[in-house]
Amino acid sequence: MIKILKSSVIPRLARAAAKAKAKAQQIQQTATNTLERTPAQDTFSAAATSPITKNEAKKMITATQHQTLVDYEFVKKEKLFNDEIMFLLQPKTTASGAKVFTPNQTKVINMAIKKVTFYKGMAKRLESMGNDTIGRVIKDIKTVFGGEKNYGKYLHARNKNGVPSSKDSISIYNKIIKEFKDQKVNTEIMNIFAKRLYQKPYKLLDKTEKELVKLSIFDGDVKFESRDYKVFEKILTTGKKDYDEAVSWIKDLIGLRMIIPSNADMSAVAEYLTNGILSGKVNVTRVSNYHSNHIYPYISQDTVKLWKQSVPGIELVQSSAIRKQNGYTTTQLNILHPVKDKSGKVRYVFVELQVRSEDLNKIGQIEHLIYDILAKKNIGKNIPELEKYYDSIGIEKAVHEVFGNTHKEAAYTDYERAMYSWIRHNETPEAKARLSYTKPILTDFGLGEYEHLLSFEALQQIDDTANILKARYGKPDLNKFTPKK
User: Fold this and answer.
1) pLDDT at residue 32, rounded to an integer
2) Residue among 194, 199, 269, 271 nearest 231 (CA)
3) How many CB atoms lie within 10 A of CB 362?
4) Domain spans of the chain?
5) What is the reported pTM?
């Protein structure tokens, strides 16, 4: 495992007091704000003229180790690395109870602080750019759909306080961190251990093999050599390439939804998009037709293939990622849209456009409560009245009972898929005539005891009540894509 800085360094420093100038360059100065460090603040001046005493050296090392511990906890909180890497970076506790880091650990932690600072600043810049351009983007995309007099009136943007809004900086930052771990940490750092144990990249390991890699790290069965720290330096050093890459990770900086009335002509959306793509008015980079087997996507695969044939470069997502077991259905398009900033310079922003019906959008909204509970999010929003309401109906208990049981979870997934299918068949003229079953009921799937809480009708009533409580006692959730009537 990692070699730890030994306490014997202190007496050696004392004996080398005459060479304090050289030693001082290697000792880090305590920073008052970990997020505002500069290289000049990280080291003592080489121009020091007075030798340091044993006590002074000890105090410097203690202060430096303490600051590194503070930085370590900050990096851990920001989740820049996974648990296995943080385990490798954790300090060793000496016999006296002091926590000490090796020089390599300290260097990585310092670089990680700067990376976090970079990503936080970048997230704010992207949010600002999105808010500066969202008005123009909405206007342009509405034009593609015939303007306000036609299908453009069904276009809705993510909003905040009733105003169209970019993806917020916190969400942007969290997405960047997630992608950094997926594409950098798991690809570069975890590869070191995967190749030593299995002679293949980490991403090619199956679930069991990945777990064994993690256990090997925690047990100390695989070592992290000093030369391996160069991998940290590679992924933590920041340049223009890193900026452009991180920007590309935020494909929904501006989020739009085409929410169509269930009685409207769904095929018209495909026609507007086809005309927009072929004329160059909209630059679609990727299309994902989320749906389940036997459920009609909102844009047919034949139409999507026509786009790709006509405009090479459009990526069609055809992996299992778009085959949703629960039947979740929407056509998602990623768009790279040019807009002019205040100075007249053309800038490109990433736009995500989802197409769905009012009925399906409503279901997608209300079932989010289930996923928020499973993700351990604060569904009460720190609003006492809302927390009391959720507790009184026992919604969290019901969700955990169902999704904590393999058979019940599978039954509920079948219920969701049947509901999405029923909605899409009713919206599709060629399928509606052949619809042979009625609206699904949770009881029919063996979950009748949860009908009053987890049926979509019950979830809708819960969502309505929650929104009333949020509006009355707290801040309403204004980030929802709820179409105006």
Assistant:
1) 31
2) 194
3) 19
4) 9-99, 115-249, 262-358, 367-473
5) 0.77
